[in-house]
Fold this sequence. Notes:
CATH superfamily: Flavodoxin domain
CATH architecture: 3-Layer(aba) Sandwich
Radius of gyration: 16 Å
Bound molecules: ligand FNR
CATH topology: Rossmann fold
Number of domains: 1
Oligomer: single chain
Amino acid sequence: MSQVYTIAVVVGSLRKDSINRKVARALVALAPSSLKLNIVEIGDLPLYNEDIDIDSPPAAYTAFRQQISAADGVLFVTPEYNRSVPGVLKNAIDVGSRPYGKSAWGGKPGAVVSASPGAIGGFGANHHLRQSLVFLNVPCMQQPEAYLGNAGTFFDAAGTVSEQTKPFLQTFMNAFAAWVEQHKKV
Length: 186
Ligand code: FNR
């Protein structure tokens, strides 16, 4: 049997009706059999503070770090807030990056999808996130880029993705599966 890679999916929105969570769910459903995707929740992570991260870090920090550490790769699906990454996602990235020298992110192949009801598709957030991933040593898939503009129109009332949108998401996931295989941490 060929290898199956576990992928941590981190969604940058806490909103109940989040478009990005719908996108993440669609990507999970379209993943090739070589990937097993799990959405890792970030909403209960206290704002990062080194003072509370010394002797006994918050349980939520520890659980999050363990989930990222256990994954073979990471997939970010995020909205754009004020042309950048939502604070809740940046917080999760910071939590996962500490303690110093023990980052949970290092060396794991990754990819970024941004989705917005606006026309630009979260380009600013997508690329600000990539800046952090360079520092965190996450080899990040370059192509296909995924700036999903007008993304509010992609789903029906039940949250099912449209047939028009599916082929691009499928292409993206197939490319990501190849990327994970190519850049897996050994
Ligand atoms: C936004 N939104 C937004 N959209 C965008 O395309 N570029 C932006 O810079 C911003 N800035 C921004 C700031 C803040 C504080 C909020 C709350 C929203 C709109 C955003 O794309 C929209 O609310 C999405 O629906 C958020 O994604 P989810 O929650 O649907 O996944």
